[in-house]
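Ops channel
N.P.: pipeline sanity check, posting one input/output pair.
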């Protein structure tokens, strides 16, 4: 079914074509009128005139219907394309058009391929949207009750188990020497009593020695169905000299052992969880509880990518040094530390296939990655005490010339705190190894920063302080 505009196009075509088709008939009549009975000119007999008249009429009629049919097909195909902006294209129409010979058929086939790619991309975006929705739904419930805190603790445990390729994970709290299972990830259909029974020996050992316990998998050992089969790591949750619980990770999806880097991550993660437990227990500051738990979650998120492990802590240290060099007050230094810890928290919503892809990202994948500052801002947004972190978290990928994301800020629209965080973030990215290149030396890093400054993308004053500390050897890799 065509629209009024397309009907008008067909109508105008019909009028013009009929007009031009009548012209040769009029000419024939005119020529015939010039010949009198004396045959002063070349005489056209009535029989010949009638034959020519019929022939011209048939040709005009055939041309009319042929051109009208072709034009109707073009209009129909154009209407199908236009409809895709608002609804799904009629696949039967597209299939029929693709069977046509010539340009219409080729155009229909090309359009069909485009539609298929669009459908695939939309499916991927829907999957990402679902992941973000599920995660943010869990995170947004944290401030309402103790039960919500347990949900968030479970989310931290799930992320850690996935990041370190473990098979199972358990998180226990302790009070007056009595352990309680707070979260379990792994084998389905296992009761709390079964988990507690299987872990009791390790919990007793931790309580006695108050140190990390490691049980590596032996070479060529058979996989068992035990809840805490090797490789196993159990570490106490200690903060300010008090033990708040125990974190246990067991098994390995690929049959190996936990690496030294993995153990460092487990140790740091247990420290962050201990802070969360203390704040929740004392109930002195619910928002601080949220923040510290989010920091633990951010650390678990980083562990998903071996090239970004420890990134937030390193960025925080570099930003702190730059801030001190620039004479910032202690309150601004603390803002830089807190913003650095949380600046990539939004990557929790990015699929591993995109986040740790070893090759170059395509356009759709880049668009997904560029959403992480907005997601990070939405996670911290409920915290009134930490409103000052929203700007650096959202805008740490903005550039002075307006080419950054997500808002395309320019010049003075970008705050000094955010400018420092941006430089520290870039510095750590250049220093550390990536799948596609080795970490750069100081001279190569300076060349990169010189290029950014010349292009008007980052703050030259911040970079000047960075160079001074590099020359003094104060910006060596940390963590």
């Amino acid at each position: 079914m065509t629209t009024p505009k397309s009907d008008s196009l067909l109508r105008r075509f019909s009028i013009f074509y009929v007009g031009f088709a009548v012209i040769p008939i009029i000419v024939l009549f005119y020529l015939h009128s010039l010949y009198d009975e004396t045959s002063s000119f070349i005489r056209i007999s009535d029989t010949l005139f009638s034959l020519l008249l019929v022939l011209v009429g048939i040709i005009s009629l055939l041309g009319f219907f042929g051109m009208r049919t072709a034009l109707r097909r073009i209009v129909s195909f154009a209407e199908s394309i236009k409809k895709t902006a608002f609804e799904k294209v009629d696949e039967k129409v597209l299939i029929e058009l693709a069977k046509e010979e010539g340009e219409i058929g080729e155009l229909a086939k090309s359009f069909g391929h485009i539609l298929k790619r669009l459908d695939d991309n939309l499916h991927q975006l829907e999957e990402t949207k679902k992941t973000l929705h599920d995660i943010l739904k869990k995170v947004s419930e944290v401030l309402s009750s103790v039960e919500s805190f347990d949900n968030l603790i479970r989310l931290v445990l799930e992320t850690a188990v996935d990041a370190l390729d473990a098979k199972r994970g358990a998180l226990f709290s302790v009070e007056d020497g009595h352990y309680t299972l707070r979260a379990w990830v792994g084998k389905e259909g296992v009761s709390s009593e079964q988990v507690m029974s299987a872990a009791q020996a390790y919990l007793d050992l931790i309580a006695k020695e108050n140190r990390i316990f490691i049980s590596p998998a032996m070479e060529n050992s058979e996989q068992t169905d035990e809840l805490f089969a090797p490789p196993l790591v159990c570490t106490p949750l200690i903060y300010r000299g008090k033990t708040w619980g125990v974190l246990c990770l067991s098994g390995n999806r690929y049959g190996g052992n936990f690496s030294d880097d993995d153990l460092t991550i487990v140790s740091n993660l247990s420290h962050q969880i201990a802070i969360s437990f203390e704040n929740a227990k004392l109930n002195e500051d619910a928002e601080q509880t949220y923040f510290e738990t989010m920091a633990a979650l951010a650390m678990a998120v980083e562990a998903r990518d071996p090239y970004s492990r420890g990134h937030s802590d390193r960025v925080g240290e570099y930003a702190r040094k730059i801030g001190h060099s620039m004479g910032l007050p202690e309150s601004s230094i603390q803002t830089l530390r807190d913003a650095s810890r949380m600046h990539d928290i939004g990557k929790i919503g990015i699929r591993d296939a995109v986040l740790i892809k070893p090759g170059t990202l395509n356009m759709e994948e880049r668009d997904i990655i560029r959403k992480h500052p907005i997601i990070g801002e939405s996670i911290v947004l409920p915290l009134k005490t930490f409103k000052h972190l929203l700007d650096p978290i959202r805008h740490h990928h903005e550039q002075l010339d307006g080419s950054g994301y997500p808002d395309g800020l320019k010049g003075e629209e970008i705050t000094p705190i955010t400018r420092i965080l941006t430089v520290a973030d870039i510095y750590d990215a250049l220093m550390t190894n990536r799948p596609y290149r080795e970490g750069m030396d100081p001279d190569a890093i300076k060349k990169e920063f010189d290029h950014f400054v010349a292009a008007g993308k980052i703050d030259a004053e911040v970079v000047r302080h960075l160079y001074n500390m590099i020359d003094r050897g104060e910006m060596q890799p940390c963590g």
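N.P.: looks fine end to end. Residues 398 and 407 are 7 Å apart (CA to CA).
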